[in-house]
Design goal:
By secondary structure, the protein is an alpha+beta fold. It contains three helices and three strands; from the N terminus they run ααβββα. It has one domain: Alpha-Beta Barrel (Split barrel-like), CATH 3.20.180.20. The protein is globular and about 55 Å long. InterPro entries: DHC, Dynein_heavy_linker, Dynein_linker_3. This is Dynein heavy chain linker domain-containing protein.
Amino acid sequence: KIFPRFYFVSAIALLDMLANGTNPPKIIPYLGDCYDSLNDVRFVADPEKEGELSTKTVDLMIAKDKEKMPMFETFTMEGEVEVYLNNLTEHMRYTLKLWLRDGVEAGSAWDIGEADKRRH
């Protein structure tokens, strides 16, 4: 009940996710089972470990069709897997809302005659 999207994954996948919940990179292969379009995320470089990627902090969402969407703020996957996946869902909605807001603002400027405005 804490993370309703678990209903969409197989029993084996669910057990693997729960067993490896403290290691987010092991959860990533199952994101596509939990979400319609989210397939992967990009982990950021760990500032404390030179040259290594963080195992908890992400900054980019990757869809099943390979479209990439940067997050406005990084997201850290910590705690229980069902809790941080719920928080990831909210962070995805927040990110989409901000991208849509920026798109509407850019689109409203098109009528002003600013031909050099970026459209994408």
